[in-house]
Write a structure and sequence with these properties.
single chain, mainly alpha, Hypothetical protein af1432, 10 helices, 67% helix, disordered N terminus
């Protein structure tokens, strides 16, 4: 399958194919410590990315590719899928975005802080594709919103769900907000920054 299809056609057939690919690849995975199917996260991220790309003159023509990549953004990192299989089914452009949104390919993964610092440095690379920033920002917007809602509902016990504690998580989301405000300024990054500020307030920092 090539990358030459129009955005409209990709938002039809290819988007459906990507959703089915993601559904099968992620299987019965659930959102961390919840009964929510993981595919719900992928759908929200795709929606955010579509809205962001479609309203950006520099990315509008790539909205379809970005939508597909958003649905698949965790496939290489969290399932048996590989960059090669994504490329074979959805093209090199989609596979490149997915690979660039992944912070680890090895099993076991490198230590948490090392992975996150490497990923932040990657997001700060001056020649990084704007499509990668678009999908990554959509992903972090949803993740941060989920943290905020969990804090409002469950309080400090929310942090028990994560590999590292609240201090590291607050560093991570604060660093992400700073990077996206610089690298992809606009309403989406502003929303992430507001969400992170609300998380910090609830965390008492």
């Amino acid at each position: 399958m090539t990358d030459s299809a129009s955005p409209g056609s990709i938002l039809g057939q290819r988007l459906s194919e990507a959703l089915e690919f993601a559904r099968v690849a992620h299987g019965g995975q659930l959102r961390k410590e919840t009964p929510i199917p993981y595919v719900s996260h992928l759908l929200v991220v795709a929606g955010y990315a579509i809205e962001d790309a479609a309203t950006d003159p520099a990315l509008h023509h790539r909205t379809g590719v970005i939508a597909v990549a958003a649905l698949l953004h965790d496939a290489v990192e969290d399932t048996e899928a590989t960059v090669a299989t994504v490329a074979a089914d959805f093209g090199d452009e989609v596979a490149g975005i997915v690979a660039s949104c992944s912070d680890a390919f090895d099993t076991p993964k490198p230590p948490w802080r090392q992975r996150k610092e490497t990923y932040l440095a990657h997001l700060s690379e001056p020649d990084l594709d704007d499509a990668v920033l678009c999908v990554a920002l959509a992903d972090k917007r949803h993740n941060s919103r989920c943290v905020l809602e969990d804090l409002r509902t469950h309080g400090a016990s929310t942090w028990d769900r994560f590999t590292v504690g609240s201090d590291e998580q607050l560093w991570w989301y604060g660093s992400l907000a700073d990077v996206f405000l610089e690298r992809r300024p606009g309403p989406a990054a502003d929303e992430l920054a507001r969400t992170v500020a609300a998380i910090r307030e609830l965390a008492g920092t």
